[in-house]
Amino acid sequence: MHIGTTLTNYIIETQRQIQGATGEFTGLLNDIAVACKKISGLVDKGDLIGVLGSAGSENVQGETQKKLDVITNEVFLEALAHNGHVAGLASEEMDEIYELPADAPRGHYLVLFDPLDGSSNIDVNVSVGTIFSIIKAPEGVVRPTTEDFLKPGAQQCGAGYCLYGPSTMMVFATAARGVQMFTLDKDFGEFLLTHEDVKIPDDTSEFAINASNSRFWEEPVKRYVDECLAGSEGPRGKDFNMRWIASMVAEVHRILTRGGVFMYPVDEKMKAKKLGGKLRLMYEANPMSLIIEQAGGVSSTGRERILDMVPEDVHQRVPVILGSRNEVERIVGYHAG
Ligand code: AHM
Ligand code: MG
């Protein structure tokens, strides 16, 4: 497809090539694009429309919600719940799965989303993003239960994120068609294809981790980071660069663009609190893992492939180590002993 084609055209063209496609998936992607455009507008206007700051509430994981966490969740529900493309929704910002209004037409998909990831960055005007994961609802199910959502990430029909940075960019992956990047033309009001079939370089000399947790890290992570920091004088024989934006969408976007490794490993502090990690499996780790793998990278907990994990809870937390193939495989090797 040619660079500059609209997201709408891109998904219609793709649909034409799939035998038996009904247009429902196309409609769903369109709904998500509409939600992301609205969120982009809100993030752009920020203080001018009074949407920044705390909402004075907590989400299910006990984290303080920003006003924009709550508003963007509503934007997503509004854009997706009434069009007959989904049977149910789940979000980082809702304790329970969301049941569609009784009169809303039902579709065949379930969407899990984090409407504003990295929202601690919003008040300081640093990039944030939306992450979404799409799975098939079980055949004939019109009132899905939590169980119906708990599918391994390998079963995702598609996944993506929208990055609200200097430009707003939508990145979308399916197992069939790899990873495409679209940039929002704010005058035109459309996402336009800007990078097709994105691939991550296998090697990198850049890593991202919150180093303030280093005293709690497990041995394999300590070893990897120590070796990177030793640079050209250490066992790796080259210098490494480090980045930490505290916004997973921005970190993954950097890795898709120029390679790198992103780590939010499980550590002793989390284990003491009986937490499996910091990031959420179903609406952060799974969608990002599908994107990374489709771009030729690797995504692991350190001990297993994230996309193979069988979820136990919609809000389950997992360790995440993803990015350039050779580096992630090295870290997985360190975990193996
Ligand atoms: P959130 O969903 O509450 O925004 O948390 C997820 C974010 C990720 O985007 C980012 O990688 C991480 O939390 C940053 O964590 P830290 O505050 O430890 O740097
Ligand atoms: Mg999040």
Mean pLDDT metric: 95
CATH names the topology of the largest domain as: Fructose-1,6-Bisphosphatase, Chain A, domain 1
* Ligands, deduplicated: 2,5-anhydro-1,6-di-O-phosphono-D-mannitol, magnesium ion
Can you count the beta strands? 16
Walkthrough of the structure:
Helices cover 31% and strands 24% of the residues. The chain is built from nine helices and 16 strands. The protein has helices at residues 7-16, 24-45, 67-80, 146-149, 219-230, 248-258, 268-272, 281-294, 325-336; strands spanning 54-58, 64-66, 86-91, 109-117, 128-136, 158-164, 168-174, 178-185, 190-195, 206-208, 241-242, 261-264, 279-280, 298-300, 317-318, 320-323. The N and C termini lie far apart (45 Å). The model has no long low-confidence stretch (mean pLDDT 95).
Q: How would you summarize this macromolecular structure in one to three sentences?
A:
The chain is of the alpha+beta class and 337 residues long.
Give me some keywords for this one.
9 helices; seven-stranded mixed beta sheet; D-Maltodextrin-Binding Protein, domain 2; 2 domains; Fructose-1,6-Bisphosphatase, Chain A, domain 1; binds 2,5-anhydro-1,6-di-O-phosphono-D-mannitol; globular; 337 residues; alpha+beta; binds magnesium ion; five-stranded mixed beta sheet; single chain
